[in-house]
Design a protein that fits this description.
Structural class: mainly alpha
Distance between the termini: 18 Å
Strand content: 5-15%
Low-confidence stretches: none
Shape: globular
Number of helices: 4
Mean pLDDT: 85
Number of strands: 2
């Protein structure tokens, strides 16, 4: 992890699931991929339950660390 991300993780006191999701979305910038679907986040973060991913994303959105956009009928996160 970069120093900037380490500082952010420590500052906001992210738990393990939040760290995984945040890192997946942060790495999207380096892969030139703007947004991820819930399924893509679940696969990349190696999380078992979709509901855990949704709950974690909602917590990160409330903190202002993650954004959400609707494209057609699906939601994507950045």
């Amino acid at each position: 992890m970069s120093k900037k991300i380490d500082t952010l993780v420590k500052e906001f006191g992210l738990n393990t699931a939040e760290q995984k999701v945040f890192l997946v979305l942060n790495m999207a910038k380096h892969k030139r991929k703007n947004t991820y679907s819930i399924t893509e986040i679940q696969k990349e973060a190696k999380m078992a339950a979709r509901t855990t991913v949704l709950y974690t994303l909602s917590k990160l959105i409330k903190r202002g660390l993650v954004g959400k956009v609707k494209k057609e009928r699906a939601y994507f996160y950045f």
